[in-house]
């Protein structure tokens, strides 16, 4: 019996073996359905326009329009975010410099191509629910990179004002979001209920004008809250 609802996914990557591997993982789940695939940027935009998927798994580097171009084009066509698809970027360690740009451009998170079976499923589901997702390994790399270069950076005044508006507990939660922790993991770390964490996350996203957890993690990086 088919589930009452499912998450529809389009996979965009110029490597056929990556597309097929992700498809095989996702199609083991009754609540996830791969409805299309694309091998380049222009094709990815066309697939999203035609199929209106819930989630687009999008490679950062592709021919005929890379991931950044696809994000911008989806936004221009109003096919991104609310009323459109949510984008989970596929990346490798060598592409950390794209994280901030992609999150600012509307991506909901990042997933390593080498991620485990469980991480792929968790990432797609979190993205579909609007929570955003950063692979823990990617998050650690982001934070480590920020720490190495922090002495050469200053905190943007707007970011500083957003953080200043948070309560001490909300800042604690924000820091843990930046580490890539789930609501349950944050609750365990802070010895509070998961419901309480959800409330803190909702309030801090509103106060910081972050669309989702991915943008909150980018704020943590910029502000050095690690």
TrEMBL record:
InterPro entries: CheY-like_superfamily, NreC/VraR/RcsB-like_REC, Sig_transdc_resp-reg_C-effctor, Sig_transdc_resp-reg_receiver, Tscrpt_reg_LuxR_C, WalR-like. Residues 8-128 form the Response regulatory domain. One of its GO terms (biological process) is phosphorelay signal transduction system. Gene3D superfamilies: 3.40.50.2300. It holds the Pfam family Response_reg. The modification 4-aspartylphosphate is found at residue 59. The keyword RNA-binding does not apply. One of its GO terms (molecular function) is DNA binding. The keyword DNA-binding applies. Keywords: DNA-binding, Phosphoprotein, Transcription, Transcription regulation. Residues 159-224 form the HTH luxR-type domain. This is DNA-binding response regulator, NarL/FixJ family, contains REC and HTH domains. It comes from Streptomyces harbinensis.
């Amino acid at each position: 019996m088919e589930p009452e609802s499912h998450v529809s996914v389009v996979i965009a990557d110029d490597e056929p073996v990556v597309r097929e591997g992700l498809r095989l993982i996702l199609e083991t789940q009754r609540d996830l359905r791969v409805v299309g695939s694309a091998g380049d940027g222009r094709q990815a935009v066309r697939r999203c326009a035609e199929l209106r998927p819930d989630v687009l798994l999008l490679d950062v580097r592709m021919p005929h329009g890379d991931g950044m171009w696809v994000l911008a084009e989806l936004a221009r066509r109003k096919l991104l975010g609310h009323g459109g698809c949510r984008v989970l970027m596929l990346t490798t360690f060598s592409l950390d410099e794209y994280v901030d740009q992609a999150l600012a451009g509307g991506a909901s998170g990042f997933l390593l191509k080498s991620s485990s079976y469980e991480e792929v499923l968790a990432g797609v589901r979190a993205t579909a629910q609007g929570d955003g997702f950063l692979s823990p390994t990617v998050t650690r790399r982001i934070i480590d990179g920020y720490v190495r270069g922090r002495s050469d950076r200053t905190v943007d005044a707007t970011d500083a004002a957003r953080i200043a508006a948070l309560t001490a507990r909300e800042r604690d939660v924000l820091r843990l979001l930046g580490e890539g922790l789930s609501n349950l993991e944050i609750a365990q770390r802070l010895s509070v209920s998961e419901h309480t964490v959800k409330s803190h996350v909702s309030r801090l996203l509103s106060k910081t004008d972050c669309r989702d957890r991915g943008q909150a993690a980018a704020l943590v990086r910029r502000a050095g809250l690690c």
